[in-house]
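Q: Two folds, back to back.
A: First:
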Amino acid sequence: MSTITHQQQKSYQKLINILSIAIPVAVAVLLGIRQRIDLGLWTKTLPHINGVINSVTSIALIIGFIAIKQKNIGLHRIIMLIAFVLGSVFLVSYVLYHVSNASTPFGGEGWIRSVYFFLLISHIVLSIVVVRFVLLAVYYALSNQIERHKKIVKWAYPIWLYVSVTGVIVYLMISPYYS
């Protein structure tokens, strides 16, 4: 991106603020709809696809981290944009699954149940938090505000990686209970 004006920067910041609230609220509203929408049997495969998306996102985040540590900015940029796109695809797929299928209860018992719910709850809470951080990180990178980008990714990266990895773990823990 070329140099942006102060007014453009304010507009982008406002958009990021709106999206940081609108995305989690929209997901919560869509998940709260009790009436399921029949989108077909193909939606039963979405949790498995989401597990793959989260796995690939986790790998992309690690490769992107390694690339920037090696000062390979071009590879870092490509890989992180791939991770961002994968996260966006995951979000759409996740919503499609949950508006068309009942939630799957976790069937584990004992200590594993506590582990599952700790991971699930921390994953959900941090997935809400990370939206703003990721949007800001991408915006700062694309607008060439590298110092601001570096500051925000100190928070965005570990949270995003945690959300991505715990998404895989939660999926693996609940996958035996999908019908």
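A: Second:
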Amino acid sequence: MRNSKEIGDTTESRALSMLVAYGYSVSIPFGDNDRYDLVVDDGETLYRLQCKTAWSNKDRTIRFNTHSQTTKNGTYHKQPYRNDIDAFLVYYPGNEQFYWIDVADATEQKMELRFAAEIDHPSINWAETYEFDGTIPERSRSENATSRSDD
């Protein structure tokens, strides 16, 4: 059975390959101490991404963590990413799909994406809304990230 580090590394490498295939310049922070996994450059803006792997949670729903988990000196710590990243790039192996979720849309602990439901409710996070097709969502462009200045 693979451990969570191996699963995360696989998701991160798939994300890197996919983003490069879509024509983005991607940087990887040196070491494991940064709160983001990748920096994506679209020529105008830099986006700090945290890559996550989703799992099947319930029928027609997937879930992913929106916080980091560490143990230091025997004490368990959780820390949300709210001020440290611009978006989550989530991979679900069940359908081999990536989802781009702005950090402003994410909850503090875990987030669910739903494929189908009997009802339509404003609190449902529809998976299709977040499907990444190679285009960075307009909301990310306007609310998040760091604009580049070409001096």
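Q: And?
A: The longest strand covers residues 45-53.
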